[in-house]
Amino acid sequence: MQYESQNTARLYFIGAIALFIGQILFGLIIGLQYVIGDFLFPEIPFNVARMVHTNLLIVWLLMGFMGASYYLVPEEAGRELYSPFLAKLMFWVFLIAGALTVIGYLSVPYATLADITGNGILPTMGREFLEQPTITKIGIVIVALAFLYNVGMTVLTGRKTVVSLVLLTGLLGLALLFLFAFYNPHNLVHDKYYWWWVVHLWVEGVWELILAAILAFVLIKTTGLDREVIEKWLYVIIAMTLITGIIGTGHHYFWIGVPGYWQWWGSIFSAMEPIPFFIMTLFAFNAVNKRKREHPNKAAVLWALGTAVLAFLGAGVWGFLSTLAPVNYYTHGTQITASHGHMAFYGAYVMVVLTIISYAVPILRGQEAKSNGMQVMEMWSFWLMSVSMVFITLFLTGAGVVQVYLQRFTDTPQPFMVVQQKMEIFYWLRELSGVIFLIGAILYALSFLPTSTHKQQASTTSA
Amino acid sequence: MSEIFTKSMARNIYYGGSAFFILLFLALTFDTHNALPDRDNREALTSQAKAGKDLWEKYDCIGCHTLLGEGAYFAPELGNVYERFGESKEAFIGFMKSRPKDGVPGRRSMPQFNFTDQELDALFEFLKYADGINNENWPPNVQG
Ligand code: HEM
Ligand code: HEM
Ligand SMILES: [Fe+2]
Q: Residues enclosing ligand 1, CB less than 6 A?
């Protein structure tokens, strides 16, 4: 580690992994409710467990992005973090706000939570992914502002590299677009139109900038390649992201009440959205093949390559499956959507956060890489999680095909609940794969536990 | 290729391309807003329907159902439930009131929310409003 203040990242990484495990546990709960309908009913209804699952996902990914920034921005800027104290403070604010929100979800009915948190004053609750009470949303904005100030000052008063500027642009966009979470008109078409400015323009816009910047950083460090080359790739990737992804928002505007021309704009531009993901894959493999050094952290390189591949598969290929309007007409809002959502989030954002953690944590402990044994364990966690996620995706796709056919496509369409029963086998198999995924996630966490050599090192340095 | 296609060209494509497509997106957004009065069924957005949307959100119905195909996939689409229930308010209210408090053994079941008659009216008006939005004939059939 070059700068003392990079250590703040560690706190964020620990928080992120803990919430990740929580997210998966709730995934297993809702997965079980899919097949055992009365599981935990009426104590924890499906919608509540689901919002815990998805909100934990978003919060821990944000924590991961923040940790990544606190690690890489000082190194890129060539100076200590502007305020390590503010960074630590904001971690606790974020964690406590998040924990209180989850406790709120689980301890009182959602409608009661809306009442006690004064949702009536500025109603923002009860929309998918944006279920948080309005005060939590305000808390998120405060944490984001403090974070941006801290990271921004570090970059602006230090060396400005392409990696840190792209990262900062992505983070700034993330914060600005979140402001649309506060706009909740009664007109349903307006509501939906701008809801996607948070959701789509995040994952298929500004978050991709963050993803590409983190990946570029890890590749620069592990391959020893010339920055000039990597920066050019980076610009090409993010150019293609925004050129295709902004108008690509139209793939969510097919059936929500806006003019039919969005079927053309949305289909054509979103059909090109896989391009930046494909370039990212080429970029990662190219960089590793032409590497100028052998970095001892093999696990981190594996994660970096895995990110590129599974982001392309999950976002690029599985997204493309249902992105053309005539296809989407049948697949919209089915298990096909869920299959894509899972692999895309995992392949792109989960994996890039696990990549930077894998790379940074050993260095924060004063080593270049973990011991061989621990790296082998980490690689096992890579394969367990990645392969089980591929299976989750395939089983949900199977379920989706049955659903689309029986409920939408045949001449004698059957009711939703009737069709759901015919998909049960896929849901059981998904749940089984989910258990394997959980084992992988736990193994990942365990592979970072301090070993006796760390403790020795710690005691020698403090002595 | 490295000689012909330089980093500064890549950067210019990034800046120019993003700026152009942001502006195009804003222009399309502007045009969409102009077209909406004829499509979004705003005349049915009565104060009752608005109260219905507030309830829809307060009880997080979207956490199990889809509405115009967006939401969760655990329970049926409700953007066309008005039509599926034969445009009948009685059918809707009867359904809502008959949800068992403790669920159905082994099955998915909707919670009993204990809505007042007034609240049920509001929800019905909201779902009727949603059904009337011109959304290019989605879903493909009445099953949603
Ligand atoms: C890493 C990037 C991506 C992530 C994390 C992601 C995630 C998601 C999620 C969670 C949903 C469901 C939203 C909801 O609940 O309504 C969704 C929907 C969708 N995504 Fe993506 N996505 C990504 C990239 C892409 C790409 C590149 C494409 C196109 C090639 C795409 C096409 C779609 C389409 C068409 C839908 C709507 C499905 C429907 O109509 O139900 N996505 N995405
Ligand atoms: C491993 C065990 C997991 C299980 C059993 C599981 C199960 C589920 C279930 C049942 C839903 C609700 C679908 C619905 O709305 O009806 C869901 C939603 C979701 N889960 Fe998971 N999940 C798991 C892991 C993950 C992971 C690792 C991620 C992130 C990479 C993730 C991201 C999401 C997202 C984004 C949604 C919303 C999807 C959408 O709206 O299309 N889940 N999950
Ligand atoms: Fe999208």
A: A 128, 203-204, 251-252, 270, 273-274, 311, 315-316, 319-320, 322-323, 328, 332-333, 337, 340-341, 344-345, 348; B 69-70
Q: Which ligand is nearest to the CA of A438?
A: 2
Contacts of A408 in chain B (CB under 8 A): 139-141, 143
Residues B55 and B71 in one domain: yes
Domain co-membership, B8 together with B47: no
The one-letter amino acid at A292: K
Joined tokens for residue A342 = 């899972």
B58 and B104 within one domain: yes
Q: Which ligand is nearest to the CA of B139?
A: 1
Q: Are residues B76 and B125 in the same domain?
A: yes
For residue B21, which residues of chain A lie inside 8 Å, CB to CB? 242-243, 246-247
Please, what is the angle between helix B89-97 and helix B117-131, to 10°? 130
Specify the number of domains making up chain B. 2
Give the pLDDT confidence of B88-119 residue by residue, as tens digits: 999 999 999 999 999 999 999 999 999 999 99
Query: Hey, are the CB atoms on A235 and B14 less than 8 Å from each other?
Result: yes
Does the CB of B74 have a partner CB in chain A at under 8 Å?
yes
pLDDT value of position A462 = 42
Q: Which residues on A lie below 8 Å from B36 (Cβ)?
A: 189-190, 257-258
Count each helix (H run) and each strand (E run) in chain B, helices first. Answer: 5, 2
Residue A49's closest chain B neighbor by CA?
B63
Question: Would you tell me which CATH number, out of the four given (1.20.210.10, 3.40.50.720, 1.10.238.10, 3.30.43.10), belongs to the domain A209-449?
Answer: 1.20.210.10
% of chain B exceeding 70 in pLDDT: 99
Looking at residue A457, what is its pLDDT?
56
Taking Cα atoms as reference points, which of B63, B64, B69, B133 lies closest to residue A404? Answer: B69
Residue span of the structural domain in which B140 resides: 43-144
The predicted complex's ipTM stands at 0.98
Say yes or no: B20 and B47 in one domain: no
Same structural domain, B32 and B58:
no
> What pLDDT shows up at residue A463?
35
The token pair at A266 is: 């949305």
Ranges of chain B whose pLDDT falls below 70? 1-2
Residue B139's CATH number:
1.10.760.10
Q: What's the confidence (pLDDT) of residue A460?
A: 47
Rounded Cα distance between A333 and B109, Å, is 20
C-alpha to C-alpha distance for B99 and B104, rounded to whole angstroms: 9
Q: Which residues contact A81 (CB under 8 A, 6 or more apart)?
A: A3, A5, A6, A8, A70, A73, A74, A87, A150, A151, A154
pTM above 0.90, yes or no: yes
Task: Examine the domain organization and report whether B53 and B116 are in the same domain.
Answer: yes
Q: What is the mean pLDDT of each run of 10 residues along chain A (463 residues)?
A: 95 98 98 98 97 98 98 98 98 98 98 98 98 98 98 97 98 98 98 98 98 98 96 98 98 98 98 98 98 97 98 98 98 98 98 98 96 97 98 98 98 98 98 98 96 58 41
The sign of the torsion formed by the CA atoms of A307, A309, A315, A318 equals negative
Residues in B 19-58 with any Cβ partner in A closer than 8 A: 21-22, 24-25, 28-29, 31-32, 35-36, 39-42, 45, 49-50, 53-54, 56-58
B49 and B119 co-located in one domain: yes
